[in-house]
Write a structure and sequence with these properties.
- The protein has a single domain, classed as HprK N-terminal domain-like (Udp-n-acetylmuramoylalanyl-d-glutamate--2,6- Diaminopimelate Ligase, Chain: A, domain 1).
- Helix content is 35%, strand content 20%.
- The chain has helices at 3-10, 34-37, 54-62, 78-86, 98-107; strands at residues 13-16, 27-30, 45-49, 67-70, 90-93, 111-112.
- Strands 1-5-4-3-2-6 form a six-stranded mixed beta sheet.
Length: 114
Amino acid sequence: MKIQQIREFTEAALVCGETNREKEVLSGFASDLMSDVLRLDTGDVLLITGLCNLQTIRTAEMAEVSCILFVRGKKITPEMIELANENRMVLMTTEYSMFRAAGELYLNGLAPVY
């Protein structure tokens, strides 16, 4: 699923990574536990989370996650944007709950990691 489609299905705002909006992700993973994210062994995954801090970006970098969707209207800080840009990540935010965002994406064809 392309980043632009993810935006449309979740009514998300693209915060950074505009040049990658045609990029494709193969699967999605929803978690607020960064230890679970570190266990991912797949690339091209969308992380759906409500944990909005620098550690989330650093964890995504280590897990080779290139796209993060923050739920529940979380506000992304300038420091997070700077770090994400350094790692060529896409950051988006939506007012949807994690359950609704994951459900909408699954219903529209995004495969789960597990």
